[in-house]
Design the sequence.
C-alpha cells in the first residue's frame, strides 16, 4: 500500500517539462488523495503549460512511476502554475549556473538574431552577417541555436565535423567564422524529438564545452517565434544585443514585433532591424516589391530602433570550388549590403 509521503517523494523527482525544475522545487504537487480500499491514487499537479503534447507525456510518466511505487490505479488532474511561480522558476539555469557556463565568454559581445515567425530568412541573415563581420576583421563565432530547424552547416557548405579533444568541442571554421550546430550531432538529417532538459543540456554544451577561443562577436541564430527554446536562450544570456529580421509585409512585421517584445521583457537591447526580401531587382534594374513595402522601417520605428539594412531577393553566385549556397561573395551587390549592415552594427556597438 502506497502512502501520501511516498507519492510526494516519487513525484517530487519528476521535472516540469517546460521549466526544467523538479516538482519539489516548483511546489507543483498541489494535492494527493488515496482510496485505500482500491489502492487508487489521485493527484493534482501544476505545470507551466497545460493541454500540450508535453503534458500527455508527463501524464504517462506519472502513471508509470506511481504504479511502480505500488499504486493499482492513478487519476491525474493538471492546472497551470501561477504567474508568480513562472516568473520565479522559468529558465534552464540558475544565476550561478549561467555565470559558470558563460564565464569563458565574459568578454564576448553576443548578437542574437531573432524573428517572429519562420520563413523570413533569419538563418540566411545570420550566416551572412557573421561572414561580413569576419570580412571586416572581427573574430566571429556562430551558434545555430535553431535546434529543431538547424540549417547553418548546409547554408555555409560545411563538410567537416567538429573535433572533440580532451572533452572539448572545437567548432568548424568556415569563411572566417567558427560554427557550431545541432546539425553536426544528428545523423542523416534526423528530426529532433527531444524535450525539455535534453535541449537545455545541448544549449549549455554550446556555451560551456565548445572551445571558442578569442572572439569579438558570438552570433546566435535563434529559433523563430517566442517559444520555450527561444525564451530559455534569452534567459541563459546575461545580456545580448538583438537583431530582428522581418520581411516588408505588414503581417510579418507585426509578428516580428513579438520577438522584439520578448527581448525587451528579458532585459536584452534591440540593436536594430534587418528587412529581408525587401525587393527583387530585374536585369533592367527595376525594383519589384514582391512582398510590399514599409514593414522593416515600420517595425524599427515601433521598436524605437533603427533599420540596419534592407536585403533584396536573390541568389548568391555559386562556385564548385568554394560551394556555400547561402553566402554572398564580398563583391556581390547583396554581399556589399551585408558588409554595410555589419559596419552599422560595429559602429553602433562602439558608441
Sequence:
Amino acid at each position: 500500500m502506497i502512502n501520501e509521503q511516498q507519492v510526494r517523494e516519487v513525484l517530487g523527482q519528476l521535472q516540469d517539462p517546460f521549466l526544467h525544475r523538479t516538482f519539489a522545487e516548483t511546489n507543483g504537487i498541489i494535492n494527493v488523495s488515496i482510496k485505500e480500499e482500491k489502492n487508487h491514487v489521485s493527484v493534482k499537479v501544476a505545470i507551466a503549460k497545460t493541454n500540450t503534447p508535453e503534458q500527455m507525456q508527463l501524464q504517462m510518466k506519472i502513471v508509470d512511476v506511481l504504479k511502480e511505487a505500488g499504486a493499482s490505479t492513478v487519476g491525474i488532474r493538471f492546472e497551470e502554475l501561477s504567474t508568480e511561480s513562472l516568473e520565479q522558476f522559468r529558465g534552464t539555469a540558475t544565476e550561478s549556473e549561467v555565470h559558470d557556463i558563460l564565464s569563458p565568454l565574459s568578454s564576448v559581445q553576443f548578437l542574437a538574431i531573432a524573428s517572429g515567425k519562420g520563413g523570413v530568412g533569419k538563418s540566411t541573415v545570420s550566416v551572412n552577417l557573421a561572414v561580413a563581420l569576419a570580412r571586416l576583421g572581427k573574430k566571429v563565432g556562430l551558434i545555430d541555436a535553431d535546434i529543431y530547424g538547424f540549417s547553418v552547416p548546409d547554408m555555409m557548405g560545411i563538410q567537416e565535423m567538429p573535433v572533440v579533444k580532451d572533452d572539448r568541442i572545437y567548432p568548424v571554421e568556415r569563411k572566417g567564422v567558427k560554427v557550431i550546430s545541432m546539425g553536426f550531432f544528428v545523423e542523416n538529417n534526423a528530426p529532433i524529438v527531444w524535450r525539455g532538459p535534453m535541449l537545455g543540456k545541448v544549449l549549455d554544451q554550446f556555451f560551456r564545452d565548445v572551445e571558442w577561443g578569442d572572439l569579438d562577436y558570438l552570433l546566435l541564430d535563434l529559433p523563430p517565434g517566442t517559444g520555450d527554446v527561444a525564451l530559455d536562450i534569452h534567459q541563459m544570456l546575461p545580456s545580448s544585443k538583438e537583431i530582428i529580421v522581418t520581411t516588408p509585409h505588414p503581417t510579418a512585421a507585426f509578428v516580428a514585433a513579438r520577438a522584439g517584445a520578448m527581448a525587451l521583457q528579458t532585459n536584452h537591447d534591440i540593436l536594430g532591424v534587418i528587412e529581408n526580401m525587401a525587393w527583387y531587382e530585374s536585369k533592367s534594374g527595376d525594383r519589384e516589391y514582391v512582398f510590399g513595402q514599409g514593414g522593416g522601417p515600420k517595425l524599427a520605428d515601433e521598436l524605437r530602433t533603427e533599420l540596419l539594412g534592407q536585403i533584396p531577393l536573390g541568389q548568391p553566385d555559386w562556385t564548385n570550388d568554394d560551394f556555400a549556397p547561402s553566402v554572398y561573395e564580398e563583391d556581390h551587390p547583396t554581399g556589399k549590403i551585408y558588409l554595410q549592415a555589419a559596419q552599422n552594427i560595429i559602429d553602433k556597438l562602439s558608441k
